[in-house]
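Exercise 4. Each item below gives a protein and its sequence. For each, produce the structure-token representation.

Item: DNA-binding protein VF530 (Aromatoleum buckelii).
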Amino acid sequence: MSGTQANNPLHGVTLERMLTELVAHYGWDELGQEIPIRCFQHEPSVASSLKFLRRTPWARERVESLYLYVLRLRRR
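Answer:
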């Protein structure tokens, strides 16, 4: 059963790691434009954003989707 997640690029990646890499790639300003949610646009911090994303499934899905997009860009 060790190969059940072999093709899932999100397997083993924490939400904090995704957010940190997105902030490093885009910066808070551009990330707030890509995903227009308040925790990215007004006084952003990793801690407050993680709290919001853990409680809000649709926002977490947007972050995961953008993270996958960035991964595809890096592989090119």
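Check: The chain has a mean pLDDT of 92.
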